[in-house]
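hiii so my PI (J.) wants the whole complex modelled not just the main chain, which honestly fair. so below is everything: two entries, each one labled with what it is. i double checked the lines twice but i was tired so who knows lol
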Amino acid sequence: MTARVSPKERIGRFLSGQPTDFVPCVPLILNHSARVLGVKVSRYATDGETMGRANVAAYRRYGQDLITIFTDTCIVAEAMGTTLHFPDDDVARVKTPVVAEPGDAAKLRRVDVHTAGRLPVYLGAIRHCVSEVGDEVFVSCCIPAPFSNAAALRGTATLARDLYKNPGLAHALLEKSLEVINDMSEAIAQAGGIPVLVDPVASGSVLSRKTFEEFAMPYLKRALGKIKSLGMVPILHICGKTASIVDLMAKTGAAALSLDQIELADAVERTGGAVCLMGTVRPAETLLGGTPETVRQEAARCLASGKRNPGGFILSSGCEVPIETPPANVDALIAAARA
Amino acid sequence: MDEIGAVSAAKEALAAGIDPYVAITGGLSKGMAIVSDKYETGVYFVPEILLCADAMYAAIGVLRPHLKLEKQAGSLPVIIGVIEGDIHDIGKNIVKLMLDAAGLTVHDLGNDVAVSAFVEKARELQSGIIAVSTLMSTTMAGMGRLIEALKNEGLRDSFKVMIGGGPLSASFARKIGADAYGANAMEGVRIATAWQEALR
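here's the output for the full assembly
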């Protein structure tokens, strides 16, 4: 028996290709952290210290292998001028996109990520986590990739129409998004965190493979390239269905893909084992609605398929652990990896 | 996907003396059936569907003023909306589009719809189908509350309820006592039209 391995050591060994004691387990514990600390989501989402304390509390409660700071996918667009609605106890959402008219694109600025909107909330949360528990666990922070950010600048349905009716505008919004996202990645790294890109709107549930190739992939490559240049391991999360694009995702430069609605065995085949895969325990069906026993069963299925991936496997939830998930179900997921 | 083309085709049909009802059922609906097919087989995705919807509604806008209104006898109206707390309405709009194209009467309550608003509409229509969606796990519970509210109002037996959206499942539908779960837009439309047929 060796001494207890810290999550930081486990992930560090895993990422450098060395054998680990257990399969790393990283449920996407995001806004659920607010529940662990006992604060409302609106407070969690707007105050860096609260967000930091909540993530530390969740880590101390669950002991997952990576802290994943996040609250909503609109935070960068908000910093660029989109206004949001903040429900009292749920995740913020777009109220008025900043680029309501094509001409509004000229208003977009390369904002200072250290001061704009709630971006300092993320940076403060990272610093808090790093100072509290940074010696035993890595702290990551999930930010939207350019396509999802452009959707929050323009409105998802409007951007979807632009792809055909005004592709030039779409590309202009993507370029502007990339600039601010890359600055944010740098600021996250400076604060001691690992930037993780999330691109839910570029999901295979929404876009065709061809559209993904044209409008999402080039910008993902550049944003992930930036993260790599910062000396970090580039991680990409796309939820929803991804069978139609997962091979392309593996060619974006991401070292690890976090996946949702896809059979892991299928994902292993389609990516040829080239990258590490993360997933895919069903968030609502199993984590929110299931029991520790059903969580264990599904985790076992994921582990069985994931372990066959030559690129490695991290047991995770397919998407965000729902806010009201029973803590015993999160415990069961982590215990399944360490059995 | 061509809005301008659809509008000019609708105008040509009127100019050629084609009955606007025939233009819709024989033209637009057939076109939308092709769109549905392409969506289901993974050729069309959300952007393509939205453009087709724009084209169809624009053409209907041209034809509608010339329609001699005939109420379809014995057709079940559909009340559709995104449950309160959620504004993700692209999926709901696709289902609505397909239901429209299939010739059903659709009452769209929009997004972030309070349980009381569904109930109020149900009381007004007295019987039919309620289709409710969400993409968020935090708002799923509102669907269970809707079913309870329909029961309390004595309306549950007069309505078929179907649910759809990202985090949902057939087992969740059973758990809250909904009549059906549509895994995607086309399945939702098939369920609604089957209920429609069963009524005849």
